[in-house]
Design a protein that fits this description.
With 402 residues, the protein is of the alpha+beta class. 16% of the residues lie in helices and 22% in strands. The protein contains two helices and 18 strands. Helix 1 packs antiparallel against helix 2. About 6% of the residues have low confidence.
Length: 402
C-alpha cells in the first residue's frame, strides 16, 4: 500500500497535492487504485492499518468517497479527515475524526491528545482485519465525552466491526454518566518516564475476536476504586476490568495474544503475595480459564511428640548411599567441553581488549586504556579458572571410567 498524487492507473483520480491510495500485487504485478469510487481526488492523509492478508485496508481521506452513512446515521464530511474501510473493491465510511487531536489515527509522527510530540500511530487492526480500534476526542456515538466541569472533550476508545458495519464506544461508561478522565490505546513510540500513553511497538490492542484492550484512570466499573490508571477489556458490548482496580499505583497494558486469550499487564500491586514479595512493578499475565495457582498455605508448626515422624521398621530399611559400591555418578561429558569453550572465548575477548587498550594508549587516552586493561585482566582470570575447571572435569570422568 502506498499513496501518490500522480495518476498511476488509467482510472486514477489523483491530483497534485491530493494523493490516491494504491495497492500493488507483487506476484501478479497488478497496480490498483483503491480510492476511485467517488470519481474525485481522494486526498488521502494516511493509512490507519491493514489486515495480515491485505483484504481490509483502513485509511483516512478528505475526499467524499461514498455517500453511505455509518451505523450512527452520519456521513462523511468534505475536506475533513474521514475514516474509511476498503474491502473487496468497496469503500465503507466509519467516522469523521478531529483534524488535530486525532492525527495519531493515521500519522506515525503526530502530536496527539494523551501523547507527546511524535507520539506514533495509535489505531490498531486485528490480524483478520474485521475489527479496528482507535482513539478520538470527538463524540462519535450517542455518548457525550465532555468533562462535566471543564467542558473539554476527553479522549475515548472506539471499535469498528467490519462484518456488522457497526461503530461502538469501547471506553464509554456503561451507565451513561460523564467521564472524568480520558482513555486511550497506547502509541508505539519509545518508552519514557512521562505519564503519557507510550510503549515501544504497536501492541495487540485489538484481538481477532473483537476484544479491545485500553487504559484509563476513570472508574468505568464499580470494582475500580483506586483512582489510578487500570487496564480494561471491551468485548461483545461489555466492559471487563483486567487489572484489580484496587492497587495504590497504576497498572499498564503491555500486550495480548492475537486471539485475546492472554493479556500481559504491569503493576506494582502484589497480585500473587506468595510469589511477588516486593512493591516494584512486575509483569503479569491474565489468562482465559486460569492463570497462576495460589501457593498452598504453610503447614502449622509442630510441638513436642508431634514433631516426630513415623518410625520405620528395621526390616524395611532401604540401602542408602553408604551401602552403594560402584563408580558413582558421571559428570556430563558435554559440560567439560562447555567449560573449555567458554574459557577460550574469554581468552579471546581479553586479547581483543588488550589490543584496544594499546590503541587507546597511543591516542593519549590513558584512563580508557587502564579501564580496558583492567577488564582484560579480569576476563583472563575467569578464563584460567574455567580452564582449570574443565581439566578437573575431564580427570573426574576418566577416573569414573567415562
Amino acid at each position: 500500500m502506498f499513496t501518490s498524487d500522480r495518476k498511476l492507473t488509467t482510472d486514477s483520480t489523483a491530483e497534485a497535492g491530493k494523493p490516491d491510495l494504491y495497492e500493488y500485487e507483487v506476484e501478479s504485478g497488478d497496480l490498483r487504485d483503491l480510492t476511485v469510487n467517488a470519481g474525485e481526488a481522494a486526498d488521502v492523509l494516511g493509512v490507519s492499518g491493514v489486515s495480515q492478508d491485505g483484504s481490509h485496508v483502513y485509511f483516512v481521506a478528505k475526499g467524499l468517497l461514498t455517500a453511505d452513512t455509518n451505523s450512527e446515521g452520519v456521513g462523511a464530511v468534505a475536506d475533513q479527515p474521514n475514516l474509511y474501510l476498503s474491502q473487496d473493491g468497496a469503500i465503507s465510511f466509519i467516522a469523521t475524526l478531529d483534524a488535530t487531536d486525532d492525527e495519531c489515527d493515521w500519522t506515525w509522527n503526530a502530536r496527539c491528545a494523551g501523547g507527546d510530540a511524535r507520539s506514533g500511530l495509535t489505531a490498531r487492526v486485528s490480524n483478520n482485519g474485521q475489527f479496528l480500534g482507535f482513539n478520538s476526542v470527538r463524540s462519535l456515538t450517542a455518548y457525550e465525552n465532555k468533562h462535566p466541569e471543564s467542558g473539554e472533550p476527553l479522549l475515548e476508545v472506539f471499535r469498528y466491526d467490519a462484518a456488522a458495519d457497526e461503530l461502538s464506544c469501547a471506553s464509554c461508561k456503561p451507565d451513561g454518566t460523564p467521564m472524568r478522565a480520558g482513555a486511550a490505546i497506547k502509541s508505539p513510540s519509545n518508552p519514557g518516564l512521562t505519564p503519557s500513553w507510550r510503549n515501544r511497538y504497536p501492541q495487540q490492542h485489538v484481538s481477532e475476536n473483537g476484544q479491545v484492550f485500553f487504559e484509563t484512570a476513570d472508574a468505568l466499573l464499580p470494582r475500580d476504586s483506586n483512582g489510578r490508571r487500570d487496564v480494561y477489556q471491551y468485548a461483545d458490548g461489555e466492559l471487563t476490568l483486567i487489572s484489580s482496580g484496587t492497587g495504590e499505583s497504576g497498572s499498564h497494558f503491555l500486550d495480548a495474544t492475537p486471539d485475546g486469550t492472554s493479556v500481559f499487564i504491569s503493576t506494582a500491586q502484589r497480585l500473587l503475595p506468595g510469589e511477588d514479595t516486593d512493591t516494584l512493578y512486575d509483569y503479569y499475565v491474565a489468562r482465559v480459564n486460569g492463570g497462576f495457582p495460589q501457593p498452598p498455605p504453610p503447614s502449622p508448626s509442630c510441638e513436642g511428640d508431634g514433631c516426630r515422624g513415623a518410625g520405620t521398621a528395621a526390616s524395611e530399611t532401604v540401602a542408602g548411599t553408604s551401602a552403594f559400591r560402584g563408580r558413582g555418578n558421571l559428570r556430563p561429558h558435554g559440560s567439560c567441553r562447555a567449560f573449555g569453550h567458554r574459557a577460550r572465548k574469554l581468552s579471546q575477548r581479553a586479547k581483543r581488549l588488550r589490543r584496544n587498550a594499546k590503541k587507546v594508549a597511543r591516542n593519549d587516552r590513558n584512563r580508557r586504556a587502564v579501564q580496558l586493561n583492567e577488564k582484560a585482566r579480569r576476563l583472563g582470570k575467569r578464563a584460567q579458572r574455567l580452564s582449570r575447571h574443565a581439566k578437573r572435569c575431564r580427570r573426574a570422568n576418566r577416573r569414573a571410567g567415562r
